[in-house]
């Protein structure tokens, strides 16, 4: 009897090493900025409000939960500007804004 052959399963992209922001674009730069900032300041990131490419790499604005409160609309958040080099390494960060979750931009 002939042996039945099954097609080999392809490796998923999640098992490969993460690409640098240079290779992966804005999405990879945003993820790298969130990981780096969380590790440094110890506050959870809420999301990314801006990503832009510049001459030296990437500038990402990351929103962070700095002080959770009840009700949630009174929690304090902050926006941090995170600069990454071409390879996704953190060059600098700074807090540019602090605000209550329930407040609107003026």
From TrEMBL:
Name any one Pfam family assigned in the record. Answer: GvpO
Q: What top-level branch of life does the organism fall under?
A: Bacteria
Q: Where is this region: Disordered?
A: 1-29
Which InterPro entries does UniProt cross-reference here?
Gas-vesicle_GvpO
**Protein name, as recorded:** Gas vesicle protein
Originating organism: Streptomyces tauricus
Please spell out the taxonomic lineage of the organism that makes this protein: Bacteria, Bacillati, Actinomycetota, Actinomycetes, Kitasatosporales
């Amino acid at each position: 009897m002939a042996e039945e052959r099954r097609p080999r399963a392809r490796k998923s992209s999640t098992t490969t090493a993460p690409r640098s922001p240079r290779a992966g674009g804005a999405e990879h730069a945003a993820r790298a900025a969130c990981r780096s900032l969380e590790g440094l300041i110890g506050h959870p990131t809420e999301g990314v409000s801006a990503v832009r490419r510049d001459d030296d790499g990437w500038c990402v604005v990351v929103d962070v939960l700095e002080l959770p409160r009840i009700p949630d609309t009174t929690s304090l958040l902050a926006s941090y500007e995170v600069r990454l080099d071409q390879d996704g390494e953190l060059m600098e960060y700074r807090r540019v804004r602090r605000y209550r979750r329930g407040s609107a931009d003026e």
